[in-house]
């Protein structure tokens, strides 16, 4: 059963990648990758885009659909630890969370479809 599911995921992933016509890789003057992602047929950002720091560590992952943020935007510190996570739907924030350097949740927010803040939670650790 696992083999069938794995095969189905691989097929779906390959079909998705075929629809993404152009890979974009942005490098600095030393050849280090700073950003990587795909553009669709309309040259709009598509799929997951990765942003790297100067040491090659992923500091941001942003999901795009038709050039708009749509999905989860994850932001990491320079050590690769998750610090922020924001869910977007059609380029509008819906939910967000923030963690401190020890991994404690310190902020959680929810927005309505017009990005009006409707709920907020904060907790501070010593």
CATH fold naming: Outer Surface Protein A, domain 3
* Oligomeric description of these chains: single chain
In N-to-C order, the SSE pattern is HEEEEEEEEE
User: Given this structure, which CATH class is correct?
Assistant: Alpha Beta
Describe the secondary-structure layout.
Blueprint: H1 2-19, E1 22-27, E2 33-39, E3 45-52, E4 58-65, E5 68-76, E6 82-89, E7 92-99, E8 105-111, E9 117-122
Antiparallel strand pairs: 1-2, 2-3, 3-4, 4-5, 5-6, 6-7, 7-8, 8-9
The gist of it:
By secondary structure, this protein is mostly beta strands. Helix content is 14%, strand content 53%. It has a nine-stranded antiparallel β-sheet with strand order 1-2-3-4-5-6-7-8-9, with no helix packed on it.
Structural notes for this entry:
The chain is mostly beta strands. It has a single domain, classed as Alpha-Beta Complex (Outer Surface Protein A, domain 3). Helix content is about 15%, strand content about 55%. The protein contains 1 helix and 9 strands; from the N terminus they run αβββββββββ. It has one helix at about 1-20; strands at about 20-25, 35-40, 45-50, 60-65, 70-75, 80-90, 90-100, 105-110, 115-120. The chain has a 9-stranded antiparallel β-sheet with strand order 1-2-3-4-5-6-7-8-9, with no helix packed on it. A hairpin with a 5-residue loop joins strand 3 and strand 4 (about 60-65). The longest helix is centred in the N-terminal third of the chain and has 18 residues, at about 1-20. The chain is flat.
């Amino acid at each position: 059963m696992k083999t069938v599911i794995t095969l189905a995921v691989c097929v779906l992933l390959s079909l998705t990648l075929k629809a993404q016509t152009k890979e974009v890789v942005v490098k600095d003057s030393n050849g280090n990758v700073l950003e990587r992602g795909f553009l669709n047929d309309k040259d709009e950002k598509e799929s997951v885009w990765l942003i790297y720091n100067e040491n090659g560590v992923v500091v941001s992952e942003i999901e795009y659909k038709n050039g708009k943020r749509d999905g989860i935007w994850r932001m990491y510190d320079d050590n690769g630890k998750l610090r922020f996570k924001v869910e977007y739907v059609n380029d509008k924030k819906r939910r967000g969370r923030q963690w401190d350097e020890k991994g404690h949740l310190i902020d959680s927010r929810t927005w309505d479809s017009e990005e009006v803040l409707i709920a907020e939670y904060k907790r501070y650790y010593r």
